Structure formats: structure tokens, C-alpha cells
Amino acid sequence: MEVKRIGVLTSGGDAPGMNAAVRAVVRYANRLGIEVMGIRRGYTGLINGDMYEMSTTDVMDYLRKGGTVLGTARCPEFKEEAGVQQAVRICQYRGLDGVVVIGGDGSYRGAADLSAHGVPCVGLPGTIDNDIASTDYTIGYDTALNTAMEMIDKLRDTSASHNRCSVVEVMGRHAGHIALNTSITCGGTYVIVPELEFSMDKLVEKILIAQNKGKSHNIVLVAEGIGDVDRLAKEIEERTGVESRATILGHVQRGGSPTQRDRLVASIMGFHAVELLSKGIGNRVVGLKNDKLVDYDIQEALQMKKELDMNLFEVAHCIAL
Ligand code: ADP
Ligand code: F6P
Asked: Which of 145, 169, 173 to probe ligand 2 with, by most ligand atoms within 8 A of CB?
């Protein structure tokens, strides 16, 4: 079957680099003579037929743009059979021979459903959380790490000036990749992640040791979902005598112009998605494994498990004061 027109959508939480991936999809598809429809607001736009043709010149300047120009959404209707069937009808009506879905695990599940209903889909990993097992690296992760690092460097200035402990909550959904990596790059005294049991006694001990060695500030990195960081800061203060403050970095971590790495990975992955769809190959997700581009069957990818790198945990622990 000749592939004449494909769609592209961004879904779930936005991530820096999503626009760079869309740009690559549009540019390479157009080069192959394939039209691209940009679908607004993820599966919501697909179900409602909210899409427009995107040309090579439309995506000028997309590389450096943060967020997602196409918009994104969480679309509960798409989790129902009726929603998927509606999307299939729209794809048939608008002549879409395939769809590139840029998002996280949830979006991959939607792409698998759509593929099973005869619309070939290729998923690209777009999330700051880096929590997708079928890839070592997700689009947006590097920018989020750099943003968190910059913010915490600033916090450190004030924390050191007041001889305080800063308890900082970072994003990551159910995973500690951002927290662990940021702890290393920001000189965290301690890091709390959902993958490992947390000991308040050890945390207190670490802060007291650092204080005794003359450290003027302490940074404690906490992955979101662990609990109330204000309460944690209070408890640290009570048990160590070190004045403590909590900061939740929040959605600022999702914003900003993508870093070089995010732009590069997004561009390569976008290119590869078109390569697959242009050959009529769907139900695949693209990833990077050991710096090599790979693609997997979506169901196979969703069965994979991603572990936190315990070597990094050891590094964080051993090089903290
Ligand atoms: P992410 O893609 O970042 O993991 P979500 O989990 O919010 O984000 O998923 C994004 C969207 O993907 C959902 O709003 C929904 O439309 C679709 N989706 C999620 N889970 C499923 C599922 N099990 N089946 C079909 N579609 C799903
Ligand atoms: O998946 C990206 C992410 O930013 C997670 O880190 C976080 O748990 C979630 O999305 C926040 O979602 P929302 O934008 O709905 O608050």
C-alpha cells in the first residue's frame, strides 16, 4: 500500500523536544512525498478530527521551541473502545495511513490500540521522566535535568547564605531518575526515590555528618509522590537543629527551549518514525539503547521494566560529604 498521508500528535505531559520531533516528521515525510496532518491536543484532537496540514516551511523555528505547538491533552475517552473506533473512522475519513504518537507509556497504549484497529502507529518517547523501559533516554529528559540543576544551583546560593537545608521535590511521576541524577549534579546530601526504601535515621545522620564537616548548606532531593516535603523539612529541622525549607520545583521542569541532546534525539527519532511508517510498518516504538536507535513491537515494549541505575545511587551516596 502506498503511504500518502500520515498524522502526528503529541500526548500526555508536554516535553521539550516534542516540537523538534514533529519538525523532523514533517520534513522527512514531505521529502518522501507524504503529506502530514498535525493533530491538535493529542487523542482529543484525533477523535474530533481537529487537524491541519503541516508543510516543511510551517515547522521553521520549531527546533528551539519549548512545550508543544500542537498542544497536548489527557483524553479519557480514548481509553474506551468507542473512542478508539471513533478515531479509526476519523483516520479513514481524513485518509491517514499512519500516525506518529509522541508521548509516554499511556500514549503508547493508545497507539497499540489504534494499530490493532488497522491504523499503523509509531510511538516516540516524549516525557521528561525518562521512565520508558524500551529506551535509555526520553525526549525532554535532558532539558528537565538541566532546568532542575539550574534552579537548585540558585537555591543553593540562598541555602548556603542562611546555613539551611533545602528539601527539593522534583518531578518524575513514579520514577526517581530526575531526582537521582540531579542529586549527583547538584551535590545533594541525600536523595529519596520511590524505588528504594527511605530511612529518616540515615538522612539525619548524613546531614549531621555534613554539618560537622563544616558544610554550610544541605540539599535533599526528593522524587515527587514520596510525601509532604514541608513536613519532611520540619522533621529534619527538629531532629538536626538545621533550619530547613521545602521547595517544589513543579512544572517549570517541563518548560524551556530543548537542549542540544533533546533536539538531536528528537530529530533522529522523528526521522526513524517516518522511515517505518513510509514502509507501512506500524505498532512500533522507537528508542535509544546503548546510543543505538532501536524499535520494538509496542506490546513487547510495554512489558519491559526500567530499573533505576544503582551504580548512580552508589556514586551519589559515596561522593556526598
Ligand atoms: P503519558 O503518555 O505521558 O504516559 P498518560 O498516561 O496521561 O500520559 O496518557 C496519555 C493519553 O494516552 C491518555 O490521556 C489517553 O488518551 C491515552 N491512554 C492512556 N492509557 C491508555 C490505555 N490504557 N489505552 C488507551 N489509551 C490510553
Ligand atoms: O509525565 C510528566 C509529568 O510532568 C510527571 O513528572 C508529573 O507527575 C506529571 O507529568 C504532572 O502532570 P500534570 O501536568 O497533569 O500536573
From this structure: 173
Residue 26 cell numbers, joined: 514533517
Domain segments of the chain: what residues? 5-140+258-303, 142-254
d(CA 89, CA 81): 12
Task: Tell me the CATH number for domain 142-254.
Answer: 3.40.50.460
Cβ-based neighbour number of residue 82 at 10 Å? 10
Identical fold, 5-140+258-303 and 142-254: yes
Q: What is the pLDDT of residues 172-196, one digit of tens each?
A: 999 999 999 999 999 999 999 999 9
Ligand 1 centroid to 44 CA: how many Å?
11
Tell me, using a 6 A CB cutoff, whether residue 13 lines ligand 1.
yes
Summarize pLDDT for 195-211 with one digit per residue, the tens.
Answer: 999 999 999 999 999 98
109 CB near ligand 1 (under 6 Å): yes
Pick the CATH number of 5-140+258-303 from 3.40.30.10, 3.40.50.450, 3.30.2130.10, 3.40.390.10: 3.40.50.450
Q: What is the pLDDT of residues 214-253, one digit of tens each?
A: 888 999 999 999 999 999 999 999 999 999 999 999 999 9
C-alpha cell read off for 200: 529518616
- Residue 103 Cβ contacting ligand 1 at under 6 Å: yes
Question: What's the whole-model pTM score?
Answer: 0.97
97: which 3 cell numbers?
Answer: 495511513
d(CA 223, CA 193): 5
User: What is the DSSP secondary-structure string of 8-50?
Assistant: EEE-SS--TTHHHHHHHHHHHHHHTT-EEEEETTHHHHHHHT-
Catalytic residue among 14, 97, 105, 129: 129
- The ligand 2 atom nearest the CA atom of 251: 4
